[in-house]
Amino acid sequence: MTTALITGASAGIGAAFAQELAARKTNLVLVARSQTKLEQLATQLQTQYQIQVEIIPQDLTAPQAAQTVFDTLNSKSIAIDLLINNAGFGEYGDFLELDRERQLNMIQLNILALVDLTHLFLSQMRQRGSGNIINMSSVAAFQSMPYFSVYAATKSFILSFSEALWAENRKYGVRVIAVCPGPTDTNFFTDAEFPPILVNIAEKNYTSTKVVVREALAAIEQEHPVIVPGDLRNQILANIPRFLPREAITTFWKTVLGSRK
Ligand SMILES: NC(=O)c1ccc[n+]([C@@H]2O[C@H](COP(=O)([O-])OP(=O)(O)OC[C@H]3O[C@@H](n4cnc5c(N)ncnc54)[C@H](OP(=O)(O)O)[C@@H]3O)[C@@H](O)[C@H]2O)c1
């Protein structure tokens, strides 16, 4: 049996990864801050699918968080075959008006924790000559986004980083992929404090978490470096920026996102 570690497993896309992988008889390590939610999910999955589920309640923005997760698993001799760096959040608004600490926390979670976990687990995977890493990016990665500036920039980082690691690690038997969903059926937009009218537009264009997860798992099997799950709408969001001047795209997003402020 293989073992997958999922960050941000207590809700949304991470919890959907847990459900799908459990149904495929994969043992799981679930990481997030909400201990009670992780315990409830672990109990459900163990009972329903007879798999082993470890939970690690951990704030991934805390100092040495990735090392703590890594050491915890090593002390239990649990090797990770599939690392899913999914935990992340965004915040809507004018950069200067947003809380400085929260923007730095976003970078800490979306980028630093992801890089640190990747470094730690990739080393073991390369020694074994096998392993998979799924990094959760976004269609936001393909363009800058006024009023969502730090978030979109973190997702661009993840896309660039993951594609580079995909190329570096193929010869070692380790597959790396950036998953770039469009609006997906979770609490993400509400938690990011988007204005209700923009949440409404997102809701009308939601892809289900199940589709995101299934297409991500299929794409890593096919050794693709990047997947944009969902239908044509997400393909358009990801690909239009390649054909238009950068300032036209940025101005478009400023109009869409900024007009609601
Ligand atoms: N939903 C979308 O439309 C969408 C689109 C593109 C990309 N994405 C990306 O997909 C990923 C998952 O998003 P989602 O929509 O599923 O969001 P979500 O429902 O809000 O889930 C986020 C997960 O991250 C965990 N988390 C947040 N802060 C954390 C911290 N400091 N330490 C550890 N875990 C933390 C949360 O658990 P706790 O609160 O329990 O810690 C939760 O399990 C994110 O990286 C997001 O950027 C989402």
From TrEMBL:
Entry-linked Pfam families: adh_short (PF00106)
Highest taxon above the source species: Bacteria
GO molecular function: oxidoreductase activity
Keyword Oxidoreductase among UniProt keywords: yes
InterPro entries according to UniProt: NAD(P)-bd_dom_sf, SDR_fam
TM stretches of this protein: none
Coiled-coil residues: none
Record keywords, A-Z: Oxidoreductase
Database matches in PANTHER family: ALCOHOL DEHYDROGENASE
Family: Belongs to the short-chain dehydrogenases/reductases (SDR) family.
Protein name as annotated: Oxidoreductase
